[in-house]
Write a structure and sequence with these properties.
4 helices, mainly alpha, single chain, Muramoyl-pentapeptide Carboxypeptidase, domain 1
């Protein structure tokens, strides 16, 4: 193998490696696939479970009773969301939109929350707390 061919091989390898790193470590972006969660919303089962699970984590931190993590939107889940919204100084309307979603992802169970956890895909977010 001559030096020129070897140099091209290294250049190609570096280009591929750089592209892979940019894909893995790109900037945090909003979850634009997640619908709002609440009354009169589509309420994806995964999204509701994530809201229940992440808010329950915050509830335990604040010595508050938890709710069932069954993925079903109902009055107890809405009440827990309104409690959480009051806790983080958001109008307690019981609907999980991007700002409430950011707070839930940021404050709840780190394994499922944040911008890399399972729930990021299912909880609406504008990534405001992660930038």
């Amino acid at each position: 193998m001559n030096t020129q061919t070897f140099g091209r091989g290294i250049a190609v390898a570096l280009t591929v490696a750089s592209a892979a790193l940019l894909t893995l470590a790109g900037p945090a972006s909003a979850s634009d696939t997640a619908d709002y969660i609440g009354d009169n919303q589509p309420n994806n089962t995964h999204g509701v479970w994530c809201v229940q699970h992440l808010i329950n984590d915050v509830a335990r931190q604040n010595n508050r009773a938890t709710i069932a993590e069954d993925g079903v939107w109902g009055p107890r889940t809405k009440d827990q969301v309104q409690w959480f919204q009051s806790l983080v100084h958001v109008q307690p309307d019981g609907v999980v939109g991007p700002f409430t979603g950011d707070n839930i992802l940021y404050r709840g169970d780190a394994y499922y929350g944040g911008t890399s956890g399972y729930c990021f895909t299912y909880v609406p977010s504008d990534s405001g707390l992660f930038e």
